[in-house]
Design brief:
This protein is an alpha/beta fold and 261 residues long. It has one domain: Vaccinia Virus protein VP39 (Rossmann fold, 3-Layer(aba) Sandwich), CATH 3.40.50.150. The protein is globular.
Length: 261
């Protein structure tokens, strides 16, 4: 994980192509559940602050926690954002101290269910009653779809990696292939619901972030998002199928939202 993120590509990833769609859709899903401004938000595993930036610009008070010093240093430069080193499994925050918890990084980097449950429980602990958590996961068949769309099965190593990932959820790139991400856990939609429920969240719901639009080429995604009419058509279609169980697994990323009672 450290080797991957020290390449310092996270800002750029969410600013182009499929990453741009991921950012736009994550934002519109999160905004449905945000409390009124001003509120207190903790962005757990917030990276360089891509989401923290727009949350702070809306007027929320944002505390970002990340395990990478490079990310924390970048996020600390954003006006209205406090950034600190930390671990999603043990947050340095008081009980019921935040109105909203965003977790767009930790769950796929925590490789055991015990560690993921620890992160979910910490989110529940620091959240005020009635508040929401929004947590991102990578979908189980994400690398398989990438291989289909980008002809990556021409690499024998990628073929073997996918064959293993779809069985146990562990995405294990060969050593030195950092462009294929890092060792991560890819969820089935029902798994994040189970984890959130076990941690105490009420009625968790899963949304497809990119949905089937992930199949579009990067330049096509950028062109559609840049044109107001095409942008609305694209987002309207994704909203229409965002929670349908039959299409959740097509998406690259899923967002699970739950409420603390």
């Amino acid at each position: 994980m450290q080797a991957y993120y020290e390449q310092d590509g996270e800002d750029g990833r969410l600013g182009a192509g499929g990453g741009m769609l991921e950012l736009v859709r994550t934002r519109e899903l999160v905004e449905r559940y945000l409390p009124a401004v001003p509120s207190s938000i903790v962005d757990v595993g917030g990276g360089t602050g891509v989401h923290a930036r727009w949350l702070a610009e809306l007027g929320h008070r944002v505390d970002l926690v990340d395990a990478m010093p490079l990310h924390v240093a970048r996020a600390a430069e954003i006006p209205g954002v406090t950034a600190t080193l930390g671990d999603a499994r043990k947050l340095d925050a008081a009980d019921a101290s935040y109105d909203f918890v965003l977790m767009c990084g930790p769950l796929y980097h925590l490789l055991t269910v015990e560690d993921r449950l620890a992160a979910w429980r910490e989110a529940h602990r620091v959240l005020k009653p009635g508040g929401y958590v929004a947590a991102a996961t990578i979908a189980r068949f994400s690398s398989l779809h990438d291989a289909l769309f980008r002809n990556l099965f021409r690499y024998k190593e990628f073929h073997s990696m996918v064959a293993s990932t779809v069985v146990d959820g562990h995405h294990r790139p060969p050593e030195g292939r950092h462009e294929w991400f890092t060792h991560t856990y890819f969820h089935r939609p029902e798994e994040s619901v189970q984890e959130a429920t076990e941690a105490g969240f009420l009625a968790p719901q899963v949304f497809a972030i990119e949905g089937s639009a992930r199949a579009l080429p990067d330049d096509e995604i950028e062109a559609r998002l840049a044109d107001p009419v095409q942008r609305e058509h694209l987002l309207w279609a994704l909203r229409l199928m965002e929670s349908d169980p039959s299409v959740l697994g097509v998406s690259s990323h899923l967002l699970t939202v739950g409420r603390k009672g």
